[in-house]
């Protein structure tokens, strides 16, 4: 029987909450983590963490890499595919074309509470090295290009209080440049560019790309992403 704890919103399952926290942690990291790292970050006993991970692994919500560390599993992608299915289906051709043109992973993110979360992503088909961007990956609002491209669409009153002056200025600048760019901000060595995607009836969205290096300028990359954003909007209107 799952252990339960009472919180202000009612009776909830503590075991389920802990399992979801593991998934959220891995999504926020954007990469693998060992069971001991997960236990330390969540403040859980290692034996409890191991049991939770084994359950998540059994359902293919997490998988182990060659070092035995855990990362988000393929089952999450199939679950995520049911969320805003029309939007995801409309975005795939545009993201695929942009990924091949830029030779970099391209993705669609949406506003979700205090983060921007990846709905779908496409890796280039003819690239030796690519950056993985799994559905469910979280981007802090105002931090990194995707987070700023989403946050700039929200009223300033809704911006996270913990944002620094530089992050606020960079987010506000997106309105003028039409895109956000970042480097070494979320993950060391990683570049990212993102453009806002404004669709009637949808929460704030953004089209982004992540890469290790590119011979194109951020402005050139942003122009290609704007084309993809326009294609997504047109596909939804069709």
Which stretches are poorly predicted, pLDDT < 50 over at least 5 residues?
A: 1-9
Strand content: 15-25%
Radius of gyration: 18 Å
The level 1 CATH classification of the largest domain is Alpha Beta
On the 0 to 100 scale, the average pLDDT is: 86
The DSSP helix count reads 8
Q: Could you please say which CATH topology of the largest domain applies here?
A: Beta-Lactamase
- Roughly how many Å apart are the termini? 49 Å
CATH level 4 superfamily of the largest domain: GAF domain
- Do you know the CATH architecture of the largest domain? 2-Layer Sandwich
**Global shape:** globular
For this entry, give a set of tags:
43% helix, 6-stranded antiparallel sheet, 238 residues, alpha+beta, disordered N terminus, single chain, 8 helices, 10 strands, globular, Beta-Lactamase, Arc Repressor Mutant, subunit A, two-stranded antiparallel sheet
């Amino acid at each position: 029987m799952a252990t339960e704890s009472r919180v202000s919103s009612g009776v909830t399952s503590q075991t389920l909450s802990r399992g979801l926290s593991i998934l959220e942690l891995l999504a926020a990291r954007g990469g693998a983590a060992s069971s001991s790292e997960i236990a330390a970050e969540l403040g859980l006993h290692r034996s409890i963490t191991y049991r939770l991970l084994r359950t998540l692994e059994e359902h293919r919500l997490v998988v182990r890499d060659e070092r035995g560390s855990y990362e988000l599993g393929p089952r999450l992608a199939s679950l995520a595919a049911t969320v805003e299915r029309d939007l995801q289906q409309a975005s795939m051709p545009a993201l695929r074309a942009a990924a091949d043109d830029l030779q970099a992973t391209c993705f669609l993110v949406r506003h979700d509470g205090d983060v921007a979360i990846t709905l779908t992503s496409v890796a280039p088909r003819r690239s030796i090295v690519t950056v993985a961007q799994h559905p469910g990956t979280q981007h802090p609002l105002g931090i990194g290009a995707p987070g700023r491209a989403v946050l700039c669409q929200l009223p300033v009153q809704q911006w996270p209080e913990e944002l620094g002056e530089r992050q606020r200025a960079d987010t506000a600048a997106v309105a003028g440049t039409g895109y956000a760019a970042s480097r070494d901000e979320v993950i060391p060595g990683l570049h990212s560019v993102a453009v806002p995607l404004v669709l009637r009836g949808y929460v704030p969205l953004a089209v982004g790309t992540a890469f290790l290096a590119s011979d194109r300028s951020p402005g050139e990359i942003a122009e290609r992403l704007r084309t993809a954003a326009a294609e997504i909007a047109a596909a939804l209107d069709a």
